[in-house]
Design brief:
Strand content: 15-25%
Bound molecules: 2-aminohexanedioic acid
Oligomer: single chain
Shape: globular
GO molecular function, one term: aldehyde dehydrogenase (NAD+) activity
Number of strands: 21
Distance between the termini: 88 Å
Family: Belongs to the aldehyde dehydrogenase family.
Structural class: alpha/beta
Subunit structure: Homotetramer.
EC number: 1.2.1.3
InterPro entries: Ald_DH/histidinol_DH, Ald_DH_C, Ald_DH_CS_GLU, Ald_DH_N, Aldehyde_DH_dom, ALDH7A1-like
Largest sheet: 7 strands, mixed
């Protein structure tokens, strides 16, 4: 029985082969071992994908390099027009792709659709951007000289993405890279290869229709390709999304060859709940932040720092809300919380709870693994709340699961210190109606994160802003604002239109 129409969605996305191993889209660089993609929703095998071998990788790179020679000469607004068509194509496939994201990754259908919406939005953003890749002009210190800067495409951009946003993160990178004139080689998470194949299938029709060389978008599957990308001198920019542990390795490897990186690593995001907060708003922000995507967003709310005077009341409200959470099949819109990605993640979740207890944490809302009908995949867990102290080792770490640590504060300065007192620096927020503490939180003496919000939660950033964070989050910025600059190389040009050749800095050199 296919109650949620998954088979139809798969077929419409061109994913059919279950026994042979589906190939990786237009650029079929896949002759390696079979990767099986199981759904955390019901534990069934969705389809098999062939991984790329080292030879496949080389073939993909050759096509990418070749394609770059053509693509860089296409005027940026024309590249934008092609990205516009990709946005249209994504609109047509929004439902099916959203379903696949939900089924292969396990997030709620609403969030799966939301993720595809982010892809559509970044396409629109990129289209506008294709006419706005502005450089500055400067006044030269020398007469009859003109100075300006221009932005040129880098070349081949390596995109290594994570399972939790299996399609949107790729599009933030690829759509910008494409209008910038770069070509992309994408290595998706081996936990969500079908989402990547589906994306490749969707955009390949647009590339074909416009006679764009297929090497503009290359897909390589399997972990082997990750380090090939990191070590490849032909790839001037690697955009990596994933854990801090692997990010550190990527960062070192790419830096060793003087390549550029955009790193989107772990978060350990907190909400400060002030005594001036509107608790009904905190409720939505904190609960969605903590249990949405089953706690598997890099922007997930992991810590609540609550003013002592409203602590008991907030805990009461949270306990009540957690008591009403429905855990189950994410394709069923009645459920709030879907599964974790796999059993390994379930184990990490259990270990974290155990460690928190050992360090003195007090369970406020009990966790545990769900059993019985509907939970056969073994990946469903109960969102839990633990009263903890910020310095606990486990609180300092990012566990990709719905575990919320709560703690008390008495002054706003202390709250900000706790908020900043972790190695990561992605997202942060304060709920308050007091403008003094709000402004302090947003000031240079406030949150040290790349994202700081007021009266909204830590997750769910819009694509128009630059997305990323400081410290162990890696410092990269993607998506909106001027994040595009990371995908291009800057060239400063000085032109002498006079008949003399004066040197800068007034240096005389008489011949
Ligand atoms: C991620 O978890 O890797 O802000 C990205 C958000 C989403 C993106 C999360 N727009 O929660």
């Amino acid at each position: 029985t296919d109650q949620f129409g998954i088979q139809e969605a798969l077929a419409s996305l061109g994913i059919k082969e279950i026994n042979e191993g589906t190939s990786t889209g237009s650029n079929s660089f896949a002759n390696g071992k079979i990767i099986e993609s199981y759904s955390p929703v019901d534990g069934t095998l969705i389809a098999k994908v062939k991984a790329s071998t080292a030879d496949d990788y080389q073939a993909a790179m050759a096509k990418a390099e070749e394609a770059f020679k053509t693509w860089r000469l296409v005027p940026a607004p024309k590249r934008g027009e092609i990205v516009r068509q990709m946005g249209d194509e994504l609109r047509k496939h929004k439902d099916a792709l959203g379903q696949l994201v939900s089924y292969e990754m396990g997030k709620s259908l609403q969030e799966g659709l939301g993720e595809v919406q982010e892809m559509i939005d970044i396409c629109d953003f990129a289209v506008g951007l294709s006419r706005q890749l502005y450089g500055l002009t400067m006044h030269s210190e020398r007469p009859m000289h003109r100075m300006y800067e221009q932005w040129h495409p880098f070349g081949v951009v390596g995109i290594i993405s994570a399972f939790n946003f299996p399609v949107a993160v790729w599009s933030w990178n690829s759509m910008l890279a494409w209008v910038c004139g770069d070509v992309c080689i994408w290595k998706p998470s081996s936990k969500t290869p079908l989402c990547a194949v589906a994306c490749q299938n969707i955009i390949k029709t647009v590339l074909e229709r416009n006679n764009v060389p297929e090497g503009v978008s290359c897909l390589v599957v399997g972990n082997e390709s990750g380090d090939l990308i990191n070590n490849d001198k032909r790839i001037p920019l690697v955009s990596f999304t994933g854990s801090t542990r692997i990010g550190r390795h990527v960062s070192k490897t790419v830096a060793e060859r003087f390549g550029n990186t955009i790193l989107e690593l772990g978060g350990n995001n907190a909400i400060i709940v002030s005594e001036h907060a509107d608790i009904s708003m905190v409720l939505v922000g904190a609960v969605f932040g903590a249990v949405g995507t089953a706690g598997q967003r890099c922007t997930t709310t992991r810590r609540l720092i609550i003013h002592e005077s409203v602590y008991d009341k907030t805990v009461e409200v949270l306990k009540n809300a957690y008591g009403q959470l429905k855990i189950g099949n994410p394709l069923d819109s009645n459920n709030h919380v879907g599964p974790l990605i796999d059993k390994g993640s379930v184990q990490d979740y259990l270990n974290a709870i155990e460690k928190a207890k050992q360090e003195g944490g007090k369970i406020i809302v009990e966790g545990g693994v769900m059993e019985g009908e509907g939970y056969e995949s073994g990946c469903y867990v109960k969102p839990c709340i633990i009263e903890a102290e910020n310095h606990f080792n486990i609180v300092q770490e990012e566990t990709f699961a719905p575990i919320l640590y709560i703690m008390k504060y008495s002054t706003i300065e202390q709250a900000i210190e706790l908020q900043n007192g972790v190695p990561q620096g992605l997202s942060s927020s304060i709920f308050t109606n007091n403008m003094r503490e709000m402004e302090l939180f947003l000031s240079q003496a406030g949150s040290d994160c790349g994202i700081a919000n007021v009266n909204i939660g830590t997750s769910g950033a819009e694509i128009g802003g630059a997305f990323g964070g400081e410290k162990e989050t890696g410092g990269g910025r993607e998506s909106g604002s001027d994040a595009w600059k990371a995908y291009m190389r800057r060239q400063t040009n000085t032109i002498n239109y006079g008949t003399q050749l004066p040197l800068a800095q007034g240096i005389r050199f008489d011949l």
